């Protein structure tokens, strides 16, 4: 599954290399009912081609008409759709939603192409970046992103946008809980990969939108299956699957590592990982065990909710005591 943002940036790069001017649009904020999350991208060429999405249809049509009319000629602008008080917006969103969009005009040239190539490398998972745009001048710069946090940070005079690979959920082994987590995560927009070498366990398993790999998750992880936007989750209760996955995951930059089990089971697992796996206290501290938020979960759906809620919490840079 290719990250939609990656498709947008690559197409924008192609247009720029071909000598076309482009407009790159980024959703900054949504209020009420809005179908696209902050950070979503749309690119438009001066030839009238476009790729990506801001709202699912109505905003895109209005924006393309405005570009054809010669609007958005300034280096950068912010447009607010849905309120009716922005002269550049002629549409209303369904259910009274409001959408705020950053519009950047990029003239063709090597600096623009170099900028887009940096974004491409981040979206491929090679590193994570923060893209800062000065609203008055349109000046932009990139710097390394060392933390988790909100995808968009809006200040008075500038916008900061986190750029990284598609959020990946790596499920170490199949179980009924793993299936519930996979289905939930697909709905949340994660790239979901399930690794399990046990043919008898995977027989008859159907997971729409999930990549299934018939190999040990520890092998997949050791071969580079994790980047900084990966959450590794082990939900099998089989130490041959779970423990090996944990031993490899803590050696990666995965932002979330968790394994299912009671407090007693988790304590025994930590002792095994110290004694057999040789993990340090710092490495063990990266493992969320018991996994997920304490919601009093009992059913498969409730456990999946607890696990994914904790992953989203950490991805957003929110401490548990802030909940």
Automatic annotation (TrEMBL):
Domain XdhC- CoxI: 17-82
Signal peptide start-end: none
Ranges of residues in domain XdhC Rossmann: 169-311
Gene3D superfamilies tied to this protein: NAD(P)-binding Rossmann-like Domain
Matches recorded under InterPro entries: MoCofactor_Util/Proc (IPR052698), XdhC_CoxI (IPR003777), XdhC_Rossmann_dom (IPR027051)
PANTHER family cross-referenced by the UniProt entry: ALDEHYDE OXIDOREDUCTASE MOLYBDENUM COFACTOR ASSEMBLY PROTEIN, MOLYBDENUM COFACTOR INSERTION CHAPERONE PAOD
Name assigned to this protein: XdhC family protein
Species name: Pseudomonas khorasanensis
Lineage, top ranks: Bacteria, Pseudomonadati, Pseudomonadota, Gammaproteobacteria, Pseudomonadales
